[in-house]
Design a protein that fits this description.
heterodimer, A: 115 residues, mainly beta, seven-stranded mixed β-sheet, four-stranded antiparallel β-sheet, 49% strand, B: mainly beta, six-stranded mixed β-sheet
Chain lengths: 115, 112
C-alpha cells in the first residue's frame, strides 16, 4: 500500500496522559498536514510541514500539542496532558509535486478517545 | 465570517438516479476547490477538483460545477450507486494559503 499510513488506528487514554501518533506520508510527497475532525464536522487544519520545516500552525494547536517531522519523511503528533475535548479523529495528509494547486491525500486517521 | 458551507446536511436518492450536492463558499479569494468523499472510519478520499478559472470539470460519473458569481460549487454524481453512500465535503484553498478549508459535509444515502 503506497498511500498515507497512520498509526495507531485507535487510541484510548485517560485524561492527563500523553499520546503520540505517527504518520507516514506518500514517499515522494514533501508536504505533510495534520487535521482534526470531530463527529459531524469537516476536518480542521492543525499544522503543515514542507520537508522537515513546520511552516504553519493553526490557533487550534495549543501548547499541549507538538508536531515534528525530523527527517522530512514520517511525522509525529504528540498531545500532552490530554483533555476530554481532545477526543477526535486526527488525520494526516500529504501532497507533493510542483505548482500551487495541490491534491491532499489523506490517511485513515487515528481515533482518539480521552476518558 | 468566512466559511465553506453546505446547503443540505443529508441527501437520499434512489439507486440509478443522479445526485447533486451543493456547497456555498464566502471567500472570493479562493482559487481552488476540491470534493472529497468520506466513508465511515476512513479518511477523506479525493474525488475531483476545479480551479477558479474553470466553470465545469468532468470525471468518471462525476461533474463539478463552479459559479463564482454566487460563490457556489456543486458535485453531480451520475447513476448513483450504493457504494456512493458516504459523507461528501467541499474544500477550498485560499490564495496564498497552504491548507484546505473544509465545510461541514453532506451525508448521501443511496436507497437500493
Amino acid at each position: 500500500d503506497t498511500g498515507v499510513s497512520q498509526n495507531p488506528r485507535h487510541k484510548i487514554t485517560k485524561r492527563g496522559q500523553n499520546v503520540t501518533f505517527r504518520c507516514d506520508p506518500i514517499s515522494e510527497h514533501n508536504r505533510l498536514y495534520w487535521y482534526r475532525q470531530t463527529l459531524g464536522q469537516g476536518p480542521e487544519f492543525l499544522t503543515y510541514f514542507q520537508n522537515e520545516a513546520q511552516l504553519e500552525k493553526s490557533r487550534l494547536l495549543s501548547d499541549r500539542f507538538s508536531a515534528e517531522r525530523p527527517k522530512g519523511s514520517f511525522s509525529t503528533l504528540e498531545i500532552q496532558r490530554t483533555e476530554q475535548g481532545d477526543s477526535a479523529m486526527y488525520l494526516c495528509a500529504s501532497s507533493g509535486g510542483q505548482g500551487y494547486n495541490e491534491k491532499l491525500f489523506f490517511g485513515s486517521g487515528t481515533q482518539l478517545s480521552v476518558l | 465570517g468566512e466559511s465553506v458551507g453546505l446547503h443540505l446536511p443529508t441527501l437520499s436518492v434512489q439507486e440509478g438516479d443522479n445526485s447533486i450536492i451543493n456547497c456555498a463558499y464566502s471567500n472570493s479569494a479562493s482559487d481552488y476547490f476540491i470534493w472529497y468523499k468520506q466513508e465511515s472510519g476512513k479518511g477523506p478520499q479525493f474525488i475531483i477538483d476545479i480551479r477558479s478559472n474553470m466553470d465545469k470539470r468532468q470525471g468518471q460519473r462525476v461533474t463539478v460545477l463552479l459559479n463564482k458569481t454566487v460563490k457556489h460549487l456543486s458535485l453531480q454524481i451520475a447513476a448513483t450507486q450504493p457504494g456512493d453512500s458516504a459523507v461528501y465535503f467541499c474544500a477550498e484553498k485560499r490564495t496564498g494559503a497552504n491548507n484546505l478549508f473544509f465545510g461541514t459535509g453532506t451525508r448521501l444515502t443511496v436507497i437500493p
